[in-house]
Design brief:
It catalyses: N(2)-acetyl-L-ornithine + 2-oxoglutarate = N-acetyl-L-glutamate 5-semialdehyde + L-glutamate. The protein has 403 residues and is of the alpha/beta class. 39% of the residues lie in helices and 18% in strands. Helix 3 (59-69) runs antiparallel to helix 11, helix 4 (82-94) runs parallel beside helix 11 and helix 13 crosses helix 14.
Length: 403
């Protein structure tokens, strides 16, 4: 078969038009640099949406991919495999959890968590204990269940009747949460830092208050750590930095550094309610993904890597502050570790996409979190030289937008 020649315009001809990708086509990556099909280089501050936490083409991950790829890619869940058992053991050794379930994405991990919470409540209390409490501007995935639980109604519009028994409350409003959580509540799901919702960190007292209210009413506390997990905030999981332990935790994105894998972690007591046949997956926990994720977790759980997250976080915030002194472009700079949001000042309202597009012209790959927030989620081991070079380019992009 001859090679098929493709360009950016091919996307508009053959792909379902769900995305509006940049007008260049990334071709290869190494560390925190990406090159497009024209050979232009970019500094990567997006990390594939907080995914490539060890950068592109990490040599130890390439070796695992090659070695496991020569052994066994997939076997199905009628059988277990050594890589998934090693990964589950590593994650349970490093966290509060006793048990792991593996899927292919954050949405699937959250779907499993929400189903498990309802099954646990129905088994223990009865069919009336089904209410799930979530928070406005939250994001938990794109399945019909997770998009209904997420606190951004636009993502659920136009798909017919949505799952019922879901309540949305203001984020960081502990009084509202205490008033709402009751005997009918089966679970509260919360992001320790709202990612898609604008990079908003939870107040420690808010998370502790949710923990206390869940304990009082026999509800499960679910931490969606799809974006904050695997070192992103400077702890292996954000709950560790907050000192508040959930009953169920979901993780994906950085877990496979770009290989699709997600996980739900929980305790023996809760996991017992997912008996054989109650939930399932074909690809989840396949040996190729599990082998890569095991190496990712081994590397990122190194204290030196986690300490380096805060150093890079401080450097990014210093660069943003310096740029703001020149252009008065930011209203607030916030976040935890290497999940940082820079909210635009009123003079630049709704222009985050303009900054992103200008940055691309100057050789930077960036993210936004809504129309007003620039989001930074680079590799946790980004070389400082790349970080500084990236911000020199970002400053030029902001100058373009400002002028």
């Amino acid at each position: 078969m001859t090679d098929i020649n493709v360009t950016r315009s091919t996307f508009d001809e053959v792909m379902v038009p769900l995305f509006a990708p940049a007008n260049f086509v990334p071709d290869r990556g190494l560390g925190s640099r990406v090159w497009d099909t024209e050979g232009r280089d970019y500094v990567d501050f997006a990390g594939g949406i907080a995914v490539t936490a060890l950068g592109h083409a990490h040599p130890e991950l390439l070796k695992v991919l090659h070695d496991q790829g020569q052994k066994l890619w997939h076997i199905g869940n009628g059988y277990t495999n050594e890589p998934v058992l090693r990964l589950a053991t590593r994650l349970t050794n490093l966290t509060f959890a006793d048990r792991a379930f593996f899927a292919n994405s954050g949405a699937e991990a959250n779907e499993a968590a929400l189903k498990l919470a309802r099954r646990y409540a129905v088994d223990n209390t009865g069919p009336e204990k089904v209410e799930i409490i979530s928070f406005t501007q939250s994001f938990h995935g794109r399945t019909l269940f997770t998009v209904s639980v997420g606190g951004q109604p636009k993502y659920a519009e136009g798909f017919g009747p949505t799952p019922q028994g879901i309540t949305h409350l203001p984020y960081n409003d502990l009084a509202a949460a205490r008033a709402a959580i009751g005997p009918q509540t089966c679970a509260v799901i919360v992001e320790p830092v709202q990612g898609e919702g604008g990079v908003l960190p939870a107040d420690p007292a808010f998370l502790q208050g949710l923990r206390d209210a869940c304990d009082q009413h026999g509800a499960l506390l679910i931490f969606d750590e799809v974006q904050t997990g695997v070192g992103r905030t400077g702890s292996l999981y954000a709950y560790m930095g907050y000192g508040v332990t959930p009953d169920i935790l979901t993780t994906a994105k950085a877990l496979g550094n770009g290989f699709p894998i997600g996980a739900m972690l929980t305790t023996d007591k809760i996991a017992a309610h997912f008996k054989v046949g109650v939930h399932g997956t074909t690809y989840g926990g396949n040996p190729l993904g599990a082998a890569i994720a095991d190496k990712v977790v081994e590397l990122i759980s190194d204290p030196a890597v986690l300490e380096g997250v805060q150093q890079r976080s401080d450097a990014i915030k210093a660069h943003l502050k310096r740029i703001d002194e020149c252009f008065s472009v930011f209203k607030e700079i916030r976040g935890k570790g290497l999940l940082i949001g820079a909210e635009l000042a009123d003079a630049y309202k709704d222009r985050a996409k303009d900054v992103l597009n200008a940055a691309a012209k100057h050789g930077v790959i960036m993210l936004i979190a809504g129309p007003n927030v620039l989001r930074f989620a680079p590799s946790l081991i980004m070389p400082m030289a790349d970080l500084d070079e990236g911000f020199a380019r970002i400053e030029k992009a902001i100058a373009d937008v400002a002028h």
